[in-house]
Amino acid sequence: MTIKTPVLDLENVSFSYDRKPVLEDINFGIEPGEFVGLVGPNGSGKTTLIKIILGLLKANHGEVRLFGQPLSKFKKLSWIGYVSQKSNSFNSGFPATVFEVVSMGLYSQMKFYKWFGKKERLKVWEALEKVGMEDYAKQNIGRLSGGQQQRVFIARALVRNPKLLILDEPTVGVDAKSENAFYDLIESMHKEKLAILLVSHDIGTITSKVDKVLCLNKRLHYHGDPKQFEMNRQEILTDAYGQHFELLEHHH
Amino acid sequence: MIEFFQNLSFMKTAFLVGILIGGITPLIGVFIFARRLPHISESLSQMNLAGVAIGSTIGSAVPYLSGINPRIYGVIFALIGAFLVELLRKVFRDFSDMSIPIILSFGTGLGALFFSILHGFNADFFNYLFGSLIAVNQSDLNNTLIISFIVVIILLIFYRPLLLITFDAEYAQVTGIRKKWIDAIFMVLMALTISVSVQAVGVMLVTGMMTLPIATAIFIGKSFKSVIFLSIIFGEAAVLIGLVLSYYLSIATGGAIITFSLLCFLLVIGVKHIYRMSMRRHIQK
Amino acid sequence: MLQDILQVDFLRYAFLSGIMIGIICPVIGVFIVLRKMSLMADGMSHMALSGIAAGLALQRYLPFLYFINPFYIGMLFSVLGSFCIRPLMKLYPFYREFVIPIILASAIGLSVVFISLADAFNKDLFGYLFGSLITISHTDFLVVLIVLVIVLGFVILCYKPLLILTFDEEGSLVSKRGKQVTDILFTMIVALVVSVTMNIVGVLLVSAMMIIPVAKGMQLAKSFKQVFIYSIIFAEFDIIGGLVVSYQFNWSTGGTIVVLAFVLFMIVLLIKKTVQSISRSKPVSYSSDETVKF
Ligand SMILES: Nc1ncnc2c1ncn2[C@@H]1O[C@H](COP(=O)(O)OP(=O)(O)OP(=O)(O)O)[C@@H](O)[C@H]1O
Ligand SMILES: [Mg+2]
């Protein structure tokens, strides 16, 4: 594999739920080590796009390639770390400790007869340290705050040692201080040459940190350099978000 | 007491079967609980009743099929029940809770119907409904041993994917786990466990064995492993003490086991409640 | 058959009671289903069994209490059980659906203990569990009649509060107090219905009688009123058909009724699916899905 192979590559991807088109003709790529921000209004199809990339949904048209391989042939699933939107899919009453949750990140890589030994435990501790949650290892996951849970799920993604990290609105319901800490964490991972796809509503913060901005609403309304995006911001956003966008922005 | 030990050899089989069932039922029960499927286990056990009734009817009507153990029909019907529940939940998306009583009572109704066709409303049927651990024989023990072994082995092999799906199904799929397959395997595990546990606690009470020990353990355990461990302890205690109680008080075994479980459950809730109250008072001072 | 009904007392009572139950059950059942209380009804019927069992045990050990019919103790337990469900749900905020199996299992466990104590593992018990024609007496018939009047009276008088309770649980159209009162009344009526239905179809199958006809009605009906009408028609068909068949072949009454109801339910589903798929292939299809909702 050459260094140039893009981590992710979408070509003419379209998708619709039943008969309702959600994504039309999406084209973009992510290079190794690139930090990409994905913005767009509610219901614009961001989560749907991510689910297609992860193989949870199947595109109606077009092709998704991960590390140069088409999605159906791609087997190195451990290269991809995923933190879902507000983690609403997880079973919040489940009696599991933080340590157990992070361990689950390793489970799919292990054969059933492989003992969960010292090496694995060490990896879990490292991941917990990276997100600063090592003090909570013995706590029940359901009893943590939303922001703390989010960090645990990031640790669960990191413990697999991924090459592409996909985060769907990870800072929803996280206070300003933790949000800063979160972005510091993401930046440090970015420095370690991890490719990152980050979905967020926080347009200002995104554009100041990422290498590339995607602005989605059914179609990609913008795709490229954040500086360029900042310059034409008003235009692009009105285009993507509609005329009421100004109203939206004043809220923040 | 002396009498009890005299009967020990006779009780030995019962105890051994009890120990096996007291272990595997809560073990599967923890997953049922965490996956929010208690209703399915309920429906499975009732469909199991229907299967056994129909199997017995077929056995008596068609002589050359009489060699097939009705329990096998029980397992098959339990699996059909699981499928039907899922089907109905899809049909009534907004009122999916309705699908459970429907399948539940269909299983019970079918069982009652076929037992009445067989003129089988007799002591055996009561044992089937409410359990009769004391009446188990050597071949029951062998069956239980084999099926428990199979259940535990399958569970060990699929423990990690099962745990992942239970905790976060979407994430599990992202890591490459085939949810459909694991779900199907889990249904088979449930059907097998139910069909052996029926001997001890009866069709009507299997779900109790799969819920009450877990409901108790969940109040104490913090991690998944500790909940599994505690559930098994509570399950074993309920079966063994229930067995002794049922022997002395001549109560149907299933009733004794479940009532003892219920008492444990209420006790733990009570103690926890008092503990919390006293903690609060302590803090106020 | 018809002659038997006219001549044999218990059969006549059974049929008349059955016809009335065919009205009572779906009328209450509609509200149960729409309020998503199907499982609660199940829990209540199982609690009724433990009440009856407790009553039987009481009669054995305290014979001077003979005048207390186990039937009433069953009703009492059923109401008590329904009041246990909410506090228990608070204990398991994440796993509310877990509570019903606990109630079901505990209720049966207790029943078995009481039945053992009463030494009542006999033919009568099968009647309680799966229903029986023979147990229906003139008094039972009168009780069903009274319950029918109460239920219809309640639904007609409290129609508005019931609707609000059903469709607007959180809203503030009615005072909180008013809702609580209606809710408690409703629960007690359900216990009443459970207890009378039990005689014919048996404890274990009562909830089926309240839910399966409604499930069928909902598949076909296009308005709230139609749900009632269809459900009652289906319930009458299930009960009368089941009674006739079970009498002819000497099969378990409750079992026959419920299996008939379920088979019919599957047929209704199948017909609806086929009709839908036929109309789907035509262009105007979307509306058929929408109109089923009320
Ligand atoms: N399971 C589904 N079935 C049908 N339609 C769906 C489903 N999930 C999402 N949609 C629709 O698809 C569109 C895109 O949804 P998506 O969740 O991708 O939006 P999003 O950009 O992630 O929004 P948000 O910012 O709120 O997270 C929405 O209009 C939504 O209503
Ligand atoms: Mg989203």
Automatic annotation (TrEMBL), chain A:
UniProt-listed Enzyme Commission number(s): 3.6.3.-
UniProt keyword annotation of Signal present: no
InterPro entries, per the entry: AAA+_ATPase (IPR003593), ABC_transporter-like_ATP-bd (IPR003439), ABC_transporter-like_CS (IPR017871), Metal_Ion_Import_ABC (IPR050153), P-loop_NTPase (IPR027417)
Keywords for this protein: ATP-binding, Hydrolase, Nucleotide-binding, Transport
CDD domains given in the database record: ABC_Metallic_Cations
Any Pfam family hit: ABC_tran
Any one GO molecular function term: ATP binding
Domain ABC transporter: 8-243
PANTHER family linked: METAL TRANSPORT SYSTEM ATP-BINDING PROTEIN TM_0124-RELATED (PTHR42734)
Family as reported in the entry's similarity comment: Belongs to the ABC transporter superfamily.
Name of the protein in its database record: Zinc transport system ATP-binding protein
Native species: Scopulibacillus daqui
From TrEMBL, chain B:
Compartments where found: Cell membrane; Membrane
Keyword Protein transport: no
Keywords: Membrane, Transmembrane, Transmembrane helix, Transport
Membrane-related topology note: Multi-pass membrane protein
Regions crossing the membrane: 14-34, 46-65, 71-88, 100-121, 141-159, 180-197, 227-249, 255-275
Chief localization: membrane
Superkingdom of the source species: Bacteria
Family: Belongs to the ABC-3 integral membrane protein family.
Protein name per Swiss-Prot or TrEMBL: Zinc transport system permease protein
From TrEMBL, chain C:
Superkingdom of the source species: Bacteria
SUPFAM superfamilies noted in UniProt: ABC transporter involved in vitamin B12 uptake, BtuC (SSF81345)
Entry annotated with the keyword Transmembrane: yes
Signal peptide positions (record): none
Transmembrane segment boundaries: 12-34, 98-121, 141-164, 184-215, 227-245, 251-271
Subcellular location: Cell membrane; Membrane
Membrane topology: Multi-pass membrane protein
Swiss-Prot/TrEMBL keywords: Membrane, Transmembrane, Transmembrane helix, Transport
InterPro entries: ABC_BtuC-like, ABC_TroCD
Keyword Membrane: yes
PANTHER family given in the database record: ABC-TRANSPORTER METAL-BINDING PROTEIN, METAL ABC TRANSPORTER PERMEASE
Similarity field: Belongs to the ABC-3 integral membrane protein family.
This protein's name: Zinc transport system permease protein
Lineage of the species this protein comes from: Bacteria, Bacillati, Bacillota, Bacilli, Bacillales
